[in-house]
Amino acid sequence: MKAVYTFADLQSWETVTADEKLPLRLAVLGDPIAHSASPPMHNAALSACGLEMAYCRLHIHPEELAAALHLLPSKGFVGVNCTIPHKGGALAIVDEADTHARLAGSVNTIRIGKDGLLEGFSTDGLGLERAVSEQLGVELSTMRVLVLGAGGGAGQAVSMHCANADVRHLTLINRTVEKLHPLQEAIAEIYPREQISVAAWNDAALAKALDQSDLVVNCSSLGMKPEDPSPIPASLIAPRHLLFDTIYTADHTPLMRAAESAGARSANGLTMLLYQGEVAFEIWFQRPAPLDVMREALFAQARGK
Ligand code: NAP
């Protein structure tokens, strides 16, 4: 299997994948995509369940997304995941979307349904909720939550999920603050408006937001590059804060390093990816996912094995 396939490969899928031992019927679509840790996790699950197919990476540019998704049924796909920057675009393309996807305004899991219909789902919120419970030992509903990068795909999904989970207070911060206004209106339809705060991304707003929050969820991509600064300076973090960084490309992200120096507990996004994988597998195959096998494969990949 190639590390990454392209849109041109997808157009000639039968020829390009003719020599594969297993048919490639699942994929993650993104731009860039080479970093994705999903294939080893899903391939271990498929193998453990005796499902004779494989999961690969597809590098799809935004202008190719609609055509790529519409090709999937005729190429024999069971489903796909969508990641940066396709989650919002995918919602506009799918034929149907579940409640989580509609609330989130994005789709990160697609199942090819009857008659080749594209069925869209969002697993970001559920993945986050299960990961926070496992990694930080708290239930979302008991928390006052600050979502950093709330205007992005993951940020909107997580913010909506927090509102749906009836968290005690919800603060939304985004570099481009204008993106938060439609989100705030959508959240206010399912959650008390007086429990929502919205702010631009600056130190004064961060200090105020941290003061009124217990759990910080970083949904911005700040921290993906090793040289990135922490999204929150350590000086603003108190030992009582819990910090969940959705970034999973490093064991210790810049936010986790800041948390550590402030004496606060933190976790990276690897467990969120695991639980999202569990939900996606169940959507595609309508059967329980082999979570332990997926965990082992995902964490081995993350350790560079
Ligand atoms: P996205 O839709 O492109 O959103 C990116 C977000 O990051 C936006 O809010 C953007 O702000 C913000 N941002 C980017 N650069 C920034 C900077 N220098 N300073 C401040 N904010 C900045 O991407 P996404 O799909 O939501 O993914 C975002 C992050 O979540 C990624 O790191 C991804 O790995 C992670 N994630 C993890 C999981 C998991 O399972 N662990 C799942 C989904 C996503 P603007 O709106 O101002 O551009």
List the strand order in the largest sheet: 1-3-2-4-6-7-5
At the fourth CATH level, what is the homologous superfamily of the largest domain?
A: Leucine Dehydrogenase, chain A, domain 1
- For the record, the CATH class of the largest domain is Alpha Beta
Would you tell me the overall average pLDDT?
96
Radius of gyration: 19 Å
Number of helices: 13
Low-confidence stretches: none
| Element-level helix/strand string | EHHEHEHEHEHEEHEHEHEHEEHEHH
Structural class: alpha/beta
Give the fraction of residues assigned to helices.
25-40%
How many discrete structural domains?
Answer: 2
Major β-sheet annotation: 7 strands, mixed
Q: Which CATH-level-2 architecture of the largest domain?
A: 3-Layer(aba) Sandwich
Number of strands: 13
CATH topology of the largest domain: Rossmann fold
Kindly estimate the percentage of residues that lie in beta strands according to DSSP: 15-25%
Bound molecules: NADP nicotinamide-adenine-dinucleotide phosphate
Shape: globular
Question: What do you see in this structure?
Answer:
By secondary structure, this protein is an alpha/beta fold. It has two domains: 5-122 and 271-304, Leucine Dehydrogenase, chain A, domain 1 (Rossmann fold, 3-Layer(aba) Sandwich); 125-268, Rossmann fold. Helices cover 39% and strands 18% of the residues. It contains 13 helices and 13 strands. A seven-stranded mixed β-sheet has the order 1-3-2-4-6-7-5, with helices on both faces. A six-stranded parallel β-sheet has the order 10-9-8-11-12-13, sandwiched between helices. Helix 7 crosses helix 8 (153-164). The longest helix is centred in the last third of the chain and has 16 residues, at 270-285. The structure holds NADP nicotinamide-adenine-dinucleotide phosphate.
